[in-house]
């Protein structure tokens, strides 16, 4: 898969929309967990993200799935996960489709 660097953010989000949270059955982008995706000239792809809770037992599994998905892009040589807690994740960050799938109505 070849991605132009100037379009990498959009395509990176598209790639990460294939990574499913195994507990919730919804993709990480739809859950609103992915805040940013960037690739530099050396091929280092940095993903800024959060989790629904601190101490999530699936952190390693999700990190591996994110790395595997992004490494399929020709420009990506290495993936770095930048796990942040600000801004705090809330259900407001979820897409409409994710809220419907999880039965979250408000």
UniProtKB/TrEMBL annotation:
Transmembrane segments: none
Annotated MIP18 family-like domain residues: 14-80
InterPro entries: Fe-S_Maturation_MIP18, FSCA_dom_sf, MIP18-like
Record's protein name: Aromatic ring hydroxylase
Organism: Pediococcus parvulus
């Amino acid at each position: 898969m070849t991605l132009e660097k100037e379009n990498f953010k959009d395509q990176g989000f598209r790639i990460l929309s294939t990574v499913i949270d195994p507990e919730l059955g919804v993709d990480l982008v739809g859950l609103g967990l992915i805040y940013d995706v960037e690739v530099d000239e050396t091929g280092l792809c940095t993903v800024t993200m959060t989790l629904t809770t601190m101490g999530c037992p699936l952190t390693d599994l999700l990190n591996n799935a994110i790395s595997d998905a992004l490494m399929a892009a020709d420009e990506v040589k290495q993936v770095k996960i930048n796990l942040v807690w600000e801004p705090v994740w809330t259900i407001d960050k979820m897409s409409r489709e994710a809220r419907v799938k999880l039965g979250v109505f408000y």
